[in-house]
Amino acid sequence: MRETMPGGQPAEADALARFLTADPEKWPRLAPRVTAAVGIPALERIVHATNARIGEFGTVTDGPDGLIVSGSAGRVRAWAQADPDGRLTALRIEGARYTPPRRRLPAHLVWAVFLVLVAAWNVLILWTADDRTAWTADLATLAAFYVVVEGCGAPAMQPRPLRRAVEAGAVAALASAWRLPGLPAGADPSGLAVGLVLLAGAGWLVTAARLHRRPAPLSRPLRFPLEGAWYVVQGGGPAVNHHARVPEQRAALDLVALGRHGTRTRPGRELRAYAAYGRPVRSPCDGTVVSAADGIADQRPGEIRYQPPYGNHVFLDTGREIVKLAHLRPGSVTVSEGDTVRAGQLLGEVGNSGNSTEPHLHLHAERDGVGLDLAFEGVSGRLYRGRTVRG
Q1: From 142's CA, which of 173, 176, 219, 384 has a CA 20 to 30 Å away?
Q2: Per-domain boundaries in the chain
Q3: What angle do CA 250, 380, 319 make, to 5 degrees?
Q4: Strands 340-341, 370-371: pairing kind
Q5: Where are the alpha helices (H) located in the chain, listed in sequence order?
């Protein structure tokens, strides 16, 4: 819960404004922990770069995307924490000018409408096909669509009504086969060739994404850190894992729990509506804690304010690789930097802090800044989007 000043401005915004407008010799008093951790020379470089982006300092305000530092030439986003005395205890300033995003329809709503419309359109085409060759070509095209949706999407995380509507489209399409005996054979095979190529391409895309393997495995399998059944929403090759473009996260997994309403246990945007929220996270290995954070607020589902990307987290050094667990619930982290932990030890709970739009656990391992393929004891096969893993 963020403390708010009498004027309605968060305490962090006022503390950050005082810090940015103060002379460097005052920083140890205004931000003792930040100054000790980063050092005045590094802070001077950060503040100088910020001033170069924003021009003459104006204000620090609180907005939907985080703290906004405004000046005569532009704005940047920031994240800060302050103690009851108004001293900064943590600080992060984005290294680029801030441009307010265009507010659009929620991505899940756009995706739902797209799926239903495409399915309905293809069903209509099948029911109006002029001959059997055209019908077969249209069916191959529709099958390619379903292969991509099922293989590259994460259908089980979607609400049940959407899943049933898309599945009903497949049933309605197949029902059009009763027309086949009354249709002519058809003479133009070009449409069928295109449909078969699309189907083969969809199958290849899904297979390649799910079987994708990198030449950098773990030194030994991890223990799965969660209890019960968990659904992989990011994992596998680049086509099914948005982490793949980040070198150290290229084989990361995002894990959610499923309820009757997809990833939620019931409709609603509150955090506890999600099946994963608050579930225990245990250490996947023996190791030493090299970084831990616990005081970062959860994001509101569907939104991301500017925060440290991993949010509340625990990073473990096994002596051979670094294992990172992120987006934990504030107040749940049980370990501190320097602690030695054993596999199976409680580390915290699943939350929604950092770059997270809904409660989930982010897990990856890296060696020398390169992401490693994950493997778990007792879990066979590849780890890819759409797979359910049981701990």
Answers
A1: 384
A2: 11-93, 107-211, 229-390
A3: 55
A4: unpaired
A5: 11-21, 27-30, 32-38, 40-54, 107-127, 132-152, 160-175, 190-211
Distances (CA, A) of 201 to 195, 198, 217, 242: 10, 5, 28, 21
Q: Percent of the chain at pLDDT above 90?
A: 77
> Mutual orientation of helices 132-152 and 190-211 as an angle, nearest 10°?
20
Tell me if residue 88 falls in helix, strand or coil.
strand
Render pLDDT for 56-93 as a digit per residue (tens, 0 to 9). 999 999 988 999 999 999 999 999 999 999 999 999 99
Distance CA 74, CA 87 (A): 26
Q: CA dist 17 to 47, 60, 81, 312, 366, Å?
A: 12, 6, 12, 25, 37
Instruction: Give a three-class secondary structure readout of 234-298.
Output: ECCCHHHCHHHHCHHHCCCEEEECCECEECECCCCCCHHHECCCCCEEECCCCEEEEEEECCCCC
Cα distance between residue 38 and residue 312, in whole Å? 19
The model's pTM: 0.90
297 burial level (CB within 10 Å; 0-12, 13-18, 19+): middle
- Sequence-distant (6+) residues with CB within 8 A of 128 are none
User: What pLDDT digit, counting tens, does each position of 246-301 carry?
Assistant: 999 999 999 999 988 888 888 777 999 999 999 999 999 999 999 999 999 999 99
**Tokens found for residue 158:** 């979607």
Q: What is the rounded CA–CA span in Å between residue 294 and residue 339? A: 15
**CATH 2.60.370.10 applies to domain 229-390:** no
